[in-house]
Structure formats: C-alpha cells, structure tokens
Amino acid sequence: MPKILIVDDDPHIREVLRFALEKDGFSVGEAANGAQALERHAAERPDLIVLDILMPEMDGTEVCRRLRRDHATPIVFLSSRDDEVDRILGLELGGDDYVTKPFSPRELVARVRAVLRRGTSAVTEGDSPVLTHGRLRLDAERFKVWWAETEVTLTVTEFGILRTLLRRPGKVYSREELIGAAYDFHNVVSDRTVDSHVRRLRAKLAAAGADPVETVHGVGYKLGNC
Fold first, then answer.
1. What pTM was computed for the model?
2. pLDDT of amino acid 128
3. Which of 21, 93, 107, 123 lies deepest, with the highest CB count within 10 Å?
4. Which pLDDT belongs to residue 87?
5. Measured between alpha carbons, how far is 110 from 99 in angstroms, rounded to an integer?
6. What are the contacts of 173-179 at 24+ separation with CB within 8 A?
7. CA separation for the pair 32, 37 (Å, rounded)
C-alpha cells in the first residue's frame, strides 16, 4: 500500500485529500507546514508527497529544494496560481507534476497514480531491465542510473525520459514522444515542461561528468555519444 504524505497548511484541503486517497487504497500521512513535512519524510519515507507551494514560513519550493539534495521521492505540487512561470519553476526544482487549486480530488488521485506508475512500470514487455550506452547505464528494475562508477539520482520523470532516450541512442525524439513516454496526462503537459525536466536531467548527468543528451533544435532531443 503506497504511502502518500499530504503537506498543506489548510486542514480542509488535507481532509479532502486524505478521504480521496484513502478511498482509493493509499496510506496517508499529513503535515501542516514545511518543517513538519521534512520531519515526517525523514521518519516515514513516503512513496510520494503532495506538496502545497504557498505555505507560511517554509514554502513548498524550499521543501522541494531540501528534499532534492538527497532524495528522489516523487512530488506533486499544489498551487493556487496557474501561472506558467510558477509551474515551470516547480518542475525545474524537481517536481514531477503540478496541480492548481481548485482541483478535482479524483483527478489528483489519478495524477498520483500516474506518477507512481512511472517508477514501478519501468520495464515493459520486450525491454531489457538494464540499458547501457557507453559509460551510461540504467537499471530499470532497481531504479538506478550510473555514469561510469558514479550513481546519478533521478526523479521518476527524469528516469522515464532517460529510459526512453536509451532505448534507441541516436534517435531524435520529439517533445511529443517524450511526453507520451513520461506522462499519462498529455493534454496538460507543455513543451516547456518537457524542456524543464530535460534541463534537470542534463544538469545531473553533467555533475557526474557527462552530458550525453543533445538538443536538436526545432525537433527535440537525442542521446549522443558517451
């Protein structure tokens, strides 16, 4: 039973989300602010966090920054603002999805399931669980990536994008193809969202000593020589 941590300073929203998630079979924990969220995460290690952005004292973006230093726990942001700049900022910080208020509890539960599926359905029929290209290696069953001997920690969305590129190195994937590989809700994912995830993926690989993902201007991305 996956455990979901709800982080929101509004007790009514926490109650609505708890009811919807528990009804769908999830185990649920709650935190009323950012500091509590970090404490609950350290103690309970949830499978996913539903994280409000606009909270007093420590907001959701700061919680995400701190978690992403050491953890790849999936994060679905909640926000009362639907500005594209805010959406892109949340995703570039390491969020896996972004839902605006007011929201449908049923849709949010579906998005939670979609994000969790990205991490658990890494191996599809006909796939090899281990994909390699030069010094880059991805183990889909263990959800791990290495550049040479250095392990690279990715979010589930970044992992899904890299896995797609690794299946056919050299093939140029359009943003639409990467959306199809990494998202269930294609209609709400923009090109800029994909670009944000790819930028984070490239930054993490570069920090490990590589940047094999290449931009093909006007088309999309491909995995180059490594």
1. 0.69
2. 66
3. 21
4. 67
5. 11
6. 173/220, 173/221, 173/222, 174/219, 174/220, 175/220, 175/221, 177/220, 178/220, 178/221
7. 7
Cα 159 to Cα 34, 66, 140, 143, 148: the distances in Å are 26, 20, 9, 8, 17
Q: Which residues of the chain have pLDDT under 50?
A: 122-126, 185-188
Q: How far is it between the farthest Cα atoms of the chain?
A: 51
Give me the sheet containing 130-133, strands edge to edge. 130-133, 136-139, 144-147, 150-152
pLDDT tens digits along 80-112: 876 655 666 777 778 888 888 888 999 899 989
Cβ contacts of residue 214 below 8 Å, gap of 6+?
A: 221, 222, 223, 224
Burial of 130 (C-beta count, 10 Å sphere; 0-12/13-18/19+): middle
List phi, psi (to 5°) of 220: 165, -130
